[in-house]
Structures are given as C-alpha cells and as structure tokens.
Amino acid sequence: MKRLFIGLACLNLAVFAWFQFGTGATDRSPLQRQIRPEQVDLTPPASAALTTPPARTATPPEASVVACLAWGSFASNEVEPSMRALFPLSLGERVKPREVRPPSGWWVFIASQGSRQAALKKAAELKVFGIEDFTVLQDEGPHQFGIHLGAYTTEAEAQARLKRLRAQGVRSSQMGPHEAKPARTWFEIRQVDEPLAIRLRELVMGFPGTELRECAGLGE
After folding, report:
1. Nearest Cα to 189, choosing from 199, 179, 180, 174?
2. What percent of the chain shows pLDDT beyond 90?
3. N or C: which end of the chain has fewer CB within 10 A?
C-alpha cells in the first residue's frame, strides 16, 4: 500500500511537470501559433497608402460681356414709357439716351392717290407688274396715301431705280430728294453681361418694332 501511494504521487508529479514545462510552443492553440504580436507590422504597404487629391479651387463662371447694346428706336412721345420700362433694371449711369437722325438722300415714289382705297388699287397694279418691294404711306402729310418705292444714298442710284420701274410700265413713278425725318431716340446700355442681355431681350418683346443692336452700328 505504501508503494502504491508513492507510485501515485510520483505519477502526479510527472503529469504536473509535463503540463507545466513540457508543452512548449508546440502545444499552443492554432490561433496562438499563427499570431505572434512581436512580428506583426501594422504599417500599410506603399501601394495601399491613402493619397489625398489636391484641393480644387472653385472658379466662378465667367459671364460674357458686350461692350454696349442699344435699344430703340423711339419717337419723341415714346421715350418716356421706354425709360420707365428700363427703371427696374437699376442701370444708373450705364444707360443714356442718344438721338439718331436718319441719313438724307433720294427716294423713288408715286404721289398721293388721295385716299386709302385709291392707294390700295395702285398697289394692286404694281403687283401685276411684278413689283413687290413698296410701301403704302399712311402717315399724315403731303405724301399720305402715296407709295414709297425705295430710298437711296445717291441720286444715281435713285435714277437707276426709276429707269427700271418705267421700263416695267410704272409711268407714274418719280424721284426726288428724301425729306429729312425727325430724329429717333436709342438707349445705349454699357457693360452688358449675359444675364442683363437676357432681361433686355425680354423687355424688347414688350415693345414691338424695337430692337437690340450694338452701339457701334447706330446711325449707319
């Protein structure tokens, strides 16, 4: 019995020593054998390094600028209403009126027919001769109900037009110095960018017979 007790005690000591000192690195769990903290490199590879793109500076869109636009033209009694229409645009010193007198010259015409009905009858006769480029004059004056057949800068141009008309059978046509017309008013608007140009085009739509053009072309 004593020997059995001694044998069991020795066996227990041997087992304890084996578990305490004999397992070593070979008895570690699979996870322990795979991960060795002292060998782990947490520095990311160069190919995986995050790069920050350079910051882009926001550039505001550029608005195209037209040096000057002119709106017109207006008779003397139309100037004030057009000025009131421009007021909401707050243009200040950027807008100014400019009077333009139509150039003088020569014109070809048919004298007054005395009434609108007679003028329309004469206009129908012109169409029979194949003539389409004419205007029946409606404004009060000595030429009311006459027919305008063309305006020309030089006397020679007017004579050439008169010769062609008479060759076509229009015997009543004649020519003479073009009467001076009253000046018309244009509004010159400077430093016009695209948003303002859009608003001006919308404004023109409310004034039939007017137009927008470059200031440099006035008087031509």
Report:
1. 199
2. 50
3. N
